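Quick one: structure for this chain?
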Amino acid sequence: MAVFVIRKGKKQLVLEKSMIADSSFKRFKGLMLESKENFDYALVFPLDFESRYGASIHMMFMNFPIDVLFLNSRKEIVDVVESLKPWTLNCTPKKPAKYIIEMPAGIARKKKIKVGEKAVFN
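Got it. Here's what it folds into:
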């Protein structure tokens, strides 16, 4: 499964590989204890409901920075956080989110991902 953004009516590939955190354990574990060398994919978190505080994340037990996209229920990007540092206690999106996409640091800047664009994933 790949992750794309829609820009000017066209799909732009962001990452070829992605995984869905579709169980309680996968959502709890997230990227904790993952190695930077093995993190070459997007990790998608579908949330039960759209919320600001319910979409908050932390970086406890992380050893490397990541980029984070927060999406609303229409999969529009409502916040982009670049290079979120390890051990950050809390990161809350600026607007309510229903999906969170975590990806390697630098991807958001390299792909010029912006608030208001739409993300597509299966």
